[in-house]
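Task 17 of the worksheet. Students: predict the tertiary structure of the chain below and write it out as structure tokens. Keep your answer in the requested format; marks are given for formatting as well as content.
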Amino acid sequence: MKYLCCPILLIFVISCSKKETTENKKLTIPDSAISSGESAFRVEKIPENCYLMVTGKDSAAIHLVDNLGTVSGEMVVKNSEKDSSSGELAGFISGDTLKLDYTFQSEGVTSENDIYFLQKENELIQGLGDYKNTKSLKFDTSNNFKKSDCNLISKILK
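Model answer:
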């Protein structure tokens, strides 16, 4: 037992006294970035898209911001003969489908609905049906939201 403890103790002492040979590397920022007032780090612009649907005298506008698959935005629905609604959208993208929660005001009451959209080229196609059984949703192509200028949509959303 005594002969077994000595080699283990020797290995322990040698490993504790071993010096670190790795060097610490410092982050260097070019002097040109510091002197010019520019940031050495680049922040990418978060993609935003806007959509508009017009059916007769009714219209709906959507503004969406996609932050790495997490989607937020606004939607307003303006009906000619019924009360309109406006509110916030929040959800995520799964493949080519947007799965959103729409929290809105209509007739002074706050409501919440699930909304699914299929993304196709420059359009959003709304899914209709039972949202609890998403496989049964039908994506009606007759009233699509068309991609639109966000400056125009921001005026509609105000």
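Marker's comment: The chain is about 20% helix and 45% strand. The chain has a mean pLDDT of 81.
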